[in-house]
């Protein structure tokens, strides 16, 4: 049985730390990191500590600090790179300063815990002193170059000033490992990490759409990725066409995918009424609406995969079809028709995502070699994972 795990963060993962920092070392020493994330328009800083789990009631990891500030891109109805960079430059230093105030106390005041042979002190806190971080972790990409540079340059400066290692973290690898981090924060003692390897991850956000196979902490294979635009980006663009102008004008959101879901399903899950297709033929057939239009399923020809060697995602064609329908209808499009179009574009997109997972699970011998890899967990993460209709599909 395949177990599905949902790990949603409001935006793409903000706590980005190296995988080895999430797990106790053999000699039981605690590790402390300051983590910086500036890949898009969120400026985020965290202080994370792994713990000696020899004591049964000891937490596996402790999040001492985590704050983020999001750039105000409202007037642009989307992320403007210059606005994002300006926000990073303004907000990152105060966030780091607040993070330092939340560093745990020095080992000299905590003799019952094993921190290793070296005693590091960073700053005074009344009669106590703060511990010095063991390393700095920072997002190195993928992301917007100028935004990434702000975080990287700050992290480099801190690493040089404190004479500690710098660990550059891949954004997508962090997405895949986030569920294990979340479990470490919740677990006690030497409880096994969850999900166990190997597992599949469907990473769906405004910037990326990936299907990833994770074999170990450091072995990850991309099985499928978008051939054009990310699913979250496609929803934001389709929402600008579908949503009534009054909703767009009065909203404080710039990620319109969430507004599109709320518009399509005002009563939440009770409005879904979803019936899954019984066959592949039924899945890829064009379903004509009562308004006369129909949306085409992306990459329907990949039925022959893996022989076709085409396993990917595509959402640009779906977005173009939605825009064409909206342009043809113009201002005469009723709210009811807009609602039906919102539901249908989500159904087509989410069934497209699900089809790639089904194809992968049915062909694991081809992907992973002669020996079938047993996978019990599918992790779905990223901003789009918050969509309840995706969970229904």
Characterization of this structure:
The protein is of the alpha/beta class. 35% of the residues lie in helices and 19% in strands. The protein has eleven helices and twelve strands. It has a five-stranded mixed beta sheet, sandwiched between helices. A five-stranded mixed beta sheet has the order 4-3-2-7-8, with helices on both faces. The chain is globular, with a radius of gyration of 23 Å. The protein starts with a strand and ends with a helix.
Which labels suit this protein?
393 residues, alpha/beta, 5-stranded mixed β-sheet, 19% strand
Short characterization:
The protein has helices at residues 81-101, 145-162, 171-186, 231-242, 245-250, 256-264, 280-284, 316-329, 335-362, 364-368, 388-392; strands spanning 3-7, 31-37, 42-50, 61-70, 121-125, 128-131, 135-141, 166-170, 199-204, 209-214, 220-225, 377-381. The protein is an alpha/beta fold and 393 residues long.
SSE blueprint and pairings:
Elements: E1 3-7, E2 31-37, E3 42-50, E4 61-70, H1 81-101, E5 121-125, E6 128-131, E7 135-141, H2 145-162, E8 166-170, H3 171-186, E9 199-204, E10 209-214, E11 220-225, H4 231-242, H5 245-250, H6 256-264, H7 280-284, H8 316-329, H9 335-362, H10 364-368, E12 377-381, H11 388-392
Parallel strand pairs: 1-12, 2-7, 7-8, 9-12
Antiparallel strand pairs: 2-3, 3-4, 5-6, 9-10, 10-11
Helix pairs in contact: 1-2, 4-6, 4-8, 4-9, 6-9
């Amino acid at each position: 049985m395949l177990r599905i795990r949902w790990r949603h963060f409001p935006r793409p993962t903000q706590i980005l730390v190296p995988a080895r920092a999430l797990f106790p070392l053999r000699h039981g020493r605690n590790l402390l990191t300051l983590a910086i994330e500036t890949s898009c328009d969120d400026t985020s800083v965290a202080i994370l500590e792994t713990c000696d789990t020899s004591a049964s009631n000891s937490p596996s990891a402790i999040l001492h600090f985590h704050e983020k500030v999001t750039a105000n891109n409202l007037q642009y109805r989307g992320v403007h790179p210059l606005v994002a960079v300006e926000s990073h430059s303004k907000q990152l230093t105060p966030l780091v300063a607040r993070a330092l105030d939340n560093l745990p106390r020095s080992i000299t005041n905590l003799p019952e815990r094993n921190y290793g042979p070296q005693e590091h002190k960073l700053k005074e806190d009344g009669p106590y002193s703060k511990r010095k971080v063991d390393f700095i972790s920072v997002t190195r990409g993928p992301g917007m170059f100028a935004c990434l540079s702000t975080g990287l340059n700050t992290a480099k400066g801190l690493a040089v000033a404190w004479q500690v290692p710098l660990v550059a973290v891949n954004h997508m690898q962090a997405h895949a490992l986030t569920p294990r981090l979340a479990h470490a924060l919740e677990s006690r003692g030497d409880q096994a990490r969850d999900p166990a390897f190997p597992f599949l991850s469907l990473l769906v956000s405004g910037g990326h759409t990936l299907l990833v196979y994770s074999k170990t902490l450091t072995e990850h294979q991309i099985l499928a990725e978008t051939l054009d635009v990310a699913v979250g980006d496609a929803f934001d663009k389709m929402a600008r066409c579908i949503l009534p102008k009054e909703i767009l004008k009065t909203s404080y959101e710039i990620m319109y995918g969430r507004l599109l879901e709320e518009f399509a399903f005002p009563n939440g899950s009770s409005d879904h009424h979803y019936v899954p297709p019984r066959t592949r033929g039924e899945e890829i057939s064009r379903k004509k609406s009562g308004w006369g239009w129909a949306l085409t399923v992306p990459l329907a020809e990949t039925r022959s995969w893996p022989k076709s060697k085409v396993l990917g995602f595509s959402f640009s064609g779906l977005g173009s079809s939605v825009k064409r329908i909206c342009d043809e209808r113009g201002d005469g499009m009723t709210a009811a028709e807009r609602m039906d179009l919102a539901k249908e574009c989500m159904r087509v997109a989410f069934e497209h995502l699900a089809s790639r997972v089904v194809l992968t699970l049915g062909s694991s011998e081809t992907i992973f070699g002669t020996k079938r890899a047993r996978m019990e967990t599918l992790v779905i993460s990223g901003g789009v994972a918050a969509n309840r209709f995706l969970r229904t599909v």
